[in-house]
Each structure stands twice: as structure tokens, then as C-alpha cells.
Amino acid sequence: MIYLKTLKLINFRCYQEVVLEFSPHLNILVGPNAAGKTTVVEAVHCLGFLKSHKAGIDAEMISYDQDFAVIKGNFEKEGKLQEVVFSLSAQGKRILANQKPFRQLSEYLGFLHVVFFCPEDLEIVKGAPGVRRKFLDSNLCLVSEAYMKSLIIYRKLLKQRNEVLKNINENHKYDRKLLEVLTGQMIPQAETLIKEREHFIRELNPLIEEKSLAISGGKEKVSLLYMPSNYTGTERDSFFDIKKDLNSKTTTSGPHRDDFEFLINGFKAAAFASQGQQRTTALSLKLALADYLNKKTEDIIIILDDVFSELDSERQNQILKLLNSEYQIFITTTSISNLSEEILKDNKIITVRREEYKNA
Ligand SMILES: Nc1ncnc2c1ncn2[C@@H]1O[C@H](COP(=O)(O)OP(=O)(O)O)[C@@H](O)[C@H]1O
Ligand SMILES: [Mg+2]
């Protein structure tokens, strides 16, 4: 178990200087719009991934009139107090863990895994297939080195193969031999990717069922349906269709075109679910993911940014009951008026008021 005891922000977006203290269990950050709630959890995200979940460029996170920003986190991890300092400036970003600098930022990754839910995650349910593939790829890369290796090789080969297909001229002249070799090399990589995706989805399914049933008070059971592109399940060469690809001048099938679907009680969520149901679906997925990752990696913190909007008070309370104390959890919300007394008395409520912190 890991938990963030204190967080210090300097010149980080709207915070000039602030120190916040957290509970090892559930922390509810409440305040009006633009008070700085998302900014706090964005900083925690940075301590996990060394980047924001929303900023296009890192410099965005530095306060408008400053030239550097610092995020300092004191964690309790493996029974020890550990300090992480992340800083941003025109020179780039730096990370220190227990005073030790990292030459490669990637060497630090893994200290802390943040499972982050934000309103944009609705796109996982209703957005384009690419959003779901990104979800599969980034999480599988976290837990499987074999997957990451295959993905890198596959992407490289795919780029080369598409290059060959694109360069077919009017006389239909192209490098047939090269196309066949590349296709042959892609098959074992595609097999690894598909096998691991299948396995991942199979393991997530009982978890997401459990979470969705709990949040909806037994009304909705969410499951995932994996849909590999053009894969019959038996034929090896059915991954790629050279004839079709020559016509389309691109690789029309393979793991780079896979997708999966969310079913609510067996019906497609993207097509019929309400905003509230889609939100519950995306949230169930993230909570299922936390339990899944926890079995493989540990050291997880859960962040639920703006999770309550569009949910009725029953679902809001169900969510809070469901969140077990195995993890440290941060929730941001504009209002706690729908939350039951019982929940409020057991958890840490942090009121976020921007003006207060400005001069802190
Ligand atoms: N680089 C920055 N410097 C100063 N203020 C910023 C910067 N980036 C964003 N802000 C401001 O921070 C405030 C808090 O935003 P946010 O944390 O998203 O609020 P909340 O999640 O509580 O609605 C906003 O008013 C925004 O304009
Ligand atoms: Mg916000």
C-alpha cells in the first residue's frame, strides 16, 4: 500500500504555495467551479506519470507569471516515509525520489500507479475505437513486457507495410516480396497482442460486473466484449488480407483496428445508455482496472475527478460505499449535499477555495 500524506505545490497553476494533508483512505475535495480541485489531483497524477492528464504541454502547468513549478509529495510506502519532488521549468522536468535524481525519467515510473477517472473518460464508452485501443495498449504495457515488445515491433512493421501499399503505382507495380515478408513478420506479433488483449478482457470482466452491479444497486451488469478485427479465431492468415489491402492501399485489418464494446445487461452501451449510465460504465471500468492492476503492480492510488455530475444521489452514495479502504482515494466534487451523513463522518472532507490558497 502507498499513500500520499502531504502535497506541497509551488507556482502550480492557480496555487502560489499550498500544503495539503490527506487521509490514507477517502479524501473528498469539495469546492465551486474553478476553485482548483482538478489542479490538486492533476499534481498527484504528475507524481505518478510525470505528466498531466490534460495539459498539452508541460509548461501549461506553471503559474502564468512564474518560470518554474514544484510538486512535492510525502508518501508512506512500504512502511517508510518517502519524498518525491517533481519540478518544471524552461529546462524541462526533473524528478527526485528521496533526494535521488533520475537521469532517465522512465526509471522513476512505477513508484506510484495512479488510476485516474475524469469526465473525458466517457469517450472510452462512446468515442471512437482508437480511444479503447489506447486504453488496452497503455494498461497492457504496464503489466506485460511481452505485450510492450510486440506492440513496438508490430507498429514498426505496420508503418513499413503501409508504406509499401501506399507506393503502388498506376501500373500496379509494388514490392510483392517485401509485402509478403512484412505480413509474415506481423502475424506472430499480432497473435501476441490479440492473445493478451483477450486475456486482459477476460480478467476484467468479473471485476467490472461486480462494480457495475454495486453502483447501480443491482440494476446494471456491465461486461466487455472484445472484437478483434477480421479474426475468425482459427485461421492464421486471416489477420491480414493482402488483396483487400492492395486495393485500399493500407492495412485494413489487424490488432491496430481492434475494438471492444461495453454491454449493459447485454445491450450495447454506446448506442442506448443515458449519460449517467455511460458515466457509471466508465467508472466501473476504472474501478475494475484498479483491482486488476493491484494484483500485478500494487502501489495504487485512485483519483475520481468530477465523478458525481449527472449521477443521482443514490448512485453517488453507492459509489462511496463501494470504494474500499484498500486504496487511498481522491474524489473531487462541487457539492456534498447528496452524500449521506454516515459517509461524510467517516471521511476527510477538504474544502477547496482558491482565494484562500492564493495567499496561503
Ligand atoms: N498556468 C496557470 N496559472 C494560473 N492559473 C491557472 C493556470 N492554469 C489554470 N489556472 C486556473 O486554475 C483555476 C482552477 O482550475 P481547476 O483546478 O480546473 O478548477 P476546478 O477543478 O475546481 O473546477 C482556474 O480558474 C484556471 O483558470
Ligand atoms: Mg475540475
Written description of the protein model:
By secondary structure, this protein is an alpha/beta fold. The protein has two domains: 2-112 and 299-358, P-loop containing nucleotide triphosphate hydrolases (Rossmann fold, 3-Layer(aba) Sandwich), CATH 3.40.50.300; 126-264, Glutathione S-transferase Yfyf (Class Pi), Chain A, domain 2 (Up-down Bundle). 42% of the residues lie in helices and 24% in strands. The chain is built from twelve helices and 14 strands. It has helices spanning 37-49, 105-108, 122-126, 129-143, 145-166, 176-215, 242-248, 269-272, 275-296, 313-322, 341-346, 354-358, and strands spanning 2-12, 15-21, 26-30, 68-77, 80-89, 92-97, 100-101, 113-117, 222-227, 259-264, 267-268, 300-304, 328-333, 348-351. Helix 4 crosses helix 5. Bound molecules: adenosine-5'-diphosphate and magnesium ion.
Features:
Rossmann fold, alpha/beta, binds adenosine-5'-diphosphate, Glutathione S-transferase Yfyf (Class Pi), Chain A, domain 2, 42% helix, 2 domains, 360 residues, 14 strands, globular, 6-stranded antiparallel sheet, 24% strand, binds magnesium ion
Summarize the structure.
With 360 residues, the protein is α/β, with parallel strands linked by helices.
Q: What's the order of the H and E elements?
A: EEEHEEEEHEHHHHEHEEHHEHEHEH
Helix-and-strand structural type: alpha/beta
Outline type: globular
Can you list the ligands bound to this structure? Answer: adenosine-5'-diphosphate, magnesium ion
Name of the CATH architecture of the largest domain: 3-Layer(aba) Sandwich
The level of helicity is 40-55%
Rg from alpha-carbon coordinates? 23 Å
Number of strands: 14
Mean pLDDT across all amino acids:
92
